[in-house]
Design brief:
The complex is a heterodimer of chains A (529) and B (352). Chain A has 17 helices and 29 strands. Chain A has 529 residues and is of the alpha/beta class. In chain A, the strands form 8 sheets. A 6-stranded mixed sheet of chain A has the order 25-29-28-27-24-26. Chain A has a 5-stranded mixed sheet with strand order 16-15-14-18-19. A 4-stranded parallel sheet of chain A has the order 4-10-9-8. The longest helix of chain A has 21 residues. Chain B is of the alpha/beta class and 352 residues long. Chain B contains 13 helices and 8 strands. In chain B, strand 6, helix 7 and strand 7 form a beta-alpha-beta unit. The chains are: A alpha/beta (529), B alpha/beta (352). At the A-B interface, helix 1, helix 2, helix 5, strand 12 and helix 8 of A face helix 1, helix 5, helix 8, helix 12 and helix 13 of B.
């Protein structure tokens, strides 16, 4: 029986048959986790594999798709040693298994026990390995060290096994903490590991995205691989194709990012804001950054904009330039402005090729006040000359909240909240509809939480809905009680638990919809009371 | 009992047309040592070129590349010429082993007229003959008359394994253990001796499982056999085994394992021999360290049927790493050449 403690994308940590924690490298030496006899490979009562016949082992004829042996809780990728040579084929096999059994079984891969590959393979959805190939490799005197192989003349199996287990323990923590993607990106001692990650991010994107969490604790974008994180790609897809600028903001002003988040509290942005303060209600501030892309000011407190760091050296890599250019072109096709200004340093000069015709470059020299004054003069002159009128600043705040809600839930929600009032609620604010709290804003996370009132509209629109059996959830909803889940649900999403159109609870998804539908154990939704 | 997928992948590798080669000359002839009369002596080996094994019409065995030696134009007269050249090469040798690329006893492959010619020519020239055949031709009506020539004959059957699962799903022999025992009984009742060939380490088996398969097969074949010859895998051209070997999906066995099988087999009371084809070569059985001692001991002990030197050598060697590797390899259900595949994975990471 599989009981997951936590999932991260396709990766999972938990316990198999109450005894074997995963992800794990199973011991095959005498007295270890796996018992090998001529008759069978035994892991637990429900998970034993017949070794008496070749057909039981699933490898009968070459060149054919392997028939992977299955047990109650496991599917065994037997030919891992071969598939790892061609990571594309390996991923195909993994996705193939996922299509068949979804999350209902764990994948145990034989033939690969390289600790340097564990992070990416666990991330790809493999939960169990065995140490048999580590035993073989150890005979060559290879010693796995934290930073690469260490030379040795001995059989270092004991040390290597301990090292592999430490890696697994760390991966388990990373899955629980939501930092697995960070770990995978940063642990690239093997080119194969990098290859697998890159393939997942490109060709495997759809499968990867379908389970990738909506948000993670933070993004430390130390390498180019970070550019293709599914959560960032997802964000940029939204900005490029779905996002629409606030109606009132008809002047675009592109700005550089800052190290401090949200950008508006940074020293540089405070200076800029000060200079354009009187016109801010017309000016749509758009921050250009990597690896996120572009961030409309009103989304700066949301994920990912608020939660990333990247090394800034005043020089942009071609991949970053390409990503930003692509995004800007798409963005300005969908979002028209009366005027487009840029106030960026020379390092961002490349963006001017991708802006609408007639844009005006103000140019920012960080070392003098002069350029800031020029910013003020230019915007002020335009506003006065173009005759933009007065604006009610309260409407402006609602507009910002609507944009955040649209980003979080989809543009459909704006019709439901355009008439809401903003009411102060302790340290944060909430949107109140017909006198009832509707969406509560959490400024620390940059997101709204749903309550039972707003839950109705989610039920009605069939979005972020977990259809449950006829019961009243209290603390957690387990997948065994889930009948269906809408395909928009990712881990960490706000969701509504319904039964026959009736809202029974609201809470946070702890699994992607695929896992909710195929698992029995583990926490699917943390209910908010 | 056929595994169609396996058969068709083997068939696909076989050359469409047999090569045209001189139908009047045997494929090859040489002298080697064997003990068909119970003591080591020089023995003549001849491989006749024929139209090939009847099984080729369907497929082939996964390890067998003898179809590379057949010719479509071999008639009775050609066979007679081949027989003549074999006999003229005999010289002083009194023991002859005859192979074709199929079955000597298959009347279509080796016409009864040629067979009769062969036996008549041999009368008085040799004291012992070994011929090889698939089981389906070891029928009373087909072989009874051989007795009449008065030459002591040992019939050899390639049982390969006493495990039908391996016969079907690894070797594609198109035979079975029960067919073997039936044929063995026919041969025994007619007074023929029987040599049983076993194939050590066919496809898809770990080396450890292959050793077990040999010991199991020796035990099963022993009551039916005069002696048992262990043939460790060698890589022949245009075979499935070759294709998989080239891709790193098959690993040749080690001489240590063969030594182990011979020692244990003889302990079981069987007359086990092994003269490995391609031993210590790239395409044959070998250890990492390809020193000649072990292979020589295997030959010598097979010939003398005295395994004490081999046993002593085996027991004094440090085989811990060999055992560790075999145990670890055996955990896996998929059995490629792990050394080669793992090598590529190891190469992908960096050293400090």
């Amino acid at each position: 029986m599989i009981v997951d403690d936590a999932l991260f994308g396709m990766a999972r940590t938990g316990k198999l048959d109450e005894s074997i924690t995963y992800p794990q490298i199973l011991s095959t030496v005498s007295g270890g986790d796996i018992k090998i006899s001529p008759e069978e490979l035994f892991i637990s009562e429900g998970n034993r594999f017949d070794r008496r016949t070749l057909s039981g082992k699933g490898t009968l004829a070459p060149g054919k798709e392997n028939r992977y042996p299955e047990s109650e809780d496991l599917v065994v990728i037997t030919d891992g040693a071969l598939l790892i040579q061609r990571p594309r084929k390996l991923l195909k096999a993994i996705y193939g298994i996922r299509n068949q059994v979804s999350f209902s079984k764990l994948i145990y891969m034989q033939g690969v026990a390289d600790p340097y590959l564990f992070p990416v393979l666990v991330y790809a959805g493999i939960s169990l390995f065995d140490d048999s190939t580590l035993r073989m490799v150890s005979l060559r005197g290879i010693r796995y060290g934290e930073l690469g192989y260490e030379r040795s003349d001995e059989n270092n199996f004991q040390a290597n096994f301990a090292f592999a287990r430490r890696i697994m323990a760390n991966l388990s923590l990373a899955i629980k903490d939501g930092t697995l993607r960070e770990v995978v990106e940063k642990y690239q001692i093997s080119t194969k590991a990098a290859e697998i990650l890159r393939l997942m991010d490109s060709e495997g994107y759809e499968a990867e995205e379908a389970s990738f969490p909506r948000r993670t604790p933070y993004i430390k974008a130390n390498s180019l691989e970070s550019l293709r994180r599914p959560d960032l790609v997802r964000y940029r897809d939204f900005i490029r194709t779905v996002y629409r600028r606030p109606d009132s903001k008809k002047i675009a002003l592109l700005l550089p990012c800052s190290a401090r988040k949200p950008y508006s509290i940074s020293k540089s942005h405070r200076k800029i804001i000060e200079k354009i303060m009187p016109y801010r209600k017309y000016v749509h501030e758009i921050i250009v950054t990597s690896p996120v892309g572009i961030v409309p000011r009103e989304l700066e407190e949301t994920y990912p904009a608020m939660f990333y760091d990247i090394p800034v050296i005043g020089d942009w890599y071609e991949d970053e330039k390409h990503m930003i250019s692509n995004l800007l072109r798409g963005y300005f096709q969908n979002n028209r402005y009366d005027a487009v200004y840029t106030f960026v340093g020379d390092d961002l000069d490349f963006i001017h090729d991708d802006l609408p015709e007639g844009h005006i470059k103000i140019g920012w020299d960080k070392h003098t006040e002069e350029s800031l004054d020029r910013l003020n003069e230019t915007i002020s002159a335009y506003v006065q000359q173009s005759g933009h009128g007065e604006h009610d600043s309260k409407t402006n705040r609602l507009e910002n909240y609507i944009k955040i809600a649209e980003y979080q839930f989809g543009n459909w929600i704006s019709d439901y909240i355009s008439g809401c009032k903003i009411v102060k609620n302790y340290n944060s604010e909430m949107l109140v509809k017909d006198g009832k709290p509707f969406l509560i804003y959490n400024p620390l996370l940059g997101k709204f939480t749903i309550n039972k009132n707003s839950g109705q509209i989610f039920a009605k629109e069939n979005r972020f809905v977990v259809e449950i059996d006829d019961f009243k959830p209290t603390a957690n909803i387990y997948p065994v009680g889930i009948l269906d889940a809408t395909e928009d649900i990712r881990q960490e999403d706000e969701v509504v638990a319904c039964h026959s159109g009736q809202v029974r609870a609201v809470g946070i998804a702890k699994m992607p919809f695929l896992a909710m539908k195929s698992l029995r154990k583990g926490i699917a939704v943390k209910v908010r009371n | 009992m056929i595994n169609r997928e396996l058969s068709s992948s083997i068939k696909a590798l076989m050359p469409a047309k047999p090569r045209s080669s001189d139908p009047d000359k045997p494929v090859s002839m040489w002298r080697e040592r064997d003990r068909l009369r119970g003591f080591p002596e020089t023995t003549m080996v001849v491989i006749f070129r024929t139209t090939g094994c009847s099984w080729y019409n369907f497929s082939s065995c996964s390890m067998c590349g003898y179809f590379n030696d057949v010719a479509s134009n071999v008639g009775v007269d050609n066979l007679k010429k081949q027989i003549d050249s074999a006999i003229s090469a005999l010289g002083y040798v009194r023991v002859l082993k005859v192979f074709t690329s199929g079955s000597f006893l298959d009347p279509i492959e080796f016409h009864p007229e040629a067979r009769d010619y062969f036996f008549r020519k041999l009368q008085g020239r040799i004291d012992k003959l070994l011929i090889e055949s698939r089981t389906e031709y070891i029928r009373k009506d087909n072989i009874e008359s051989i007795k009449d020539y008065g030459i002591p004959v040992r019939i050899a059957i390639g049982l390969e394994s006493a495990n039908d699962d391996i016969i079907m799903n690894s070797i594609n022999k198109g035979s079975s253990f029960s067919k073997f025992t039936a044929a063995a009984k026919v041969a025994k009742n007619l007074g023929f001796e029987l040599r049983t060939y076993l194939l050590f380490k066919p496809l898809f088996l770990s080396e450890k499982a292959a050793i077990s398969d040999m010991l199991f097969s020796i035990e099963k074949a022993m009551p039916h056999s005069t002696d048992i010859s262990i043939n460790p895998m060698n890589i022949q051209r245009h075979t499935l085994v070759e294709k998989m070997w080239k891709k790193g999906l098959y690993r040749l066995p080690r001489l240590w394992s063969l030594a182990n099988i011979l020692i244990k087999g003889s302990d079981m009371g069987a007359s086990v021999v092994s003269y490995p084809t391609g031993g210590n070569k790239e395409r044959g059985i070998h250890n990492e360290d390809r020193g000649p001692e072990l292979l020589n001991l295997i030959y010598d002990s097979s010939l003398k049927q005295n395994f004490s030197d081999l046993r002593a050598y085996y027991e004094k060697s440090d085989l811990r790493e060999y055992y560790e590797y075999l145990d670890a390899e055996d955990v896996n259900m998929f059995q490629p050449d792990y050394d080669r595949l793992l090598d590529r994975v190891v190469q992908s990471s960096s050293w400090i």
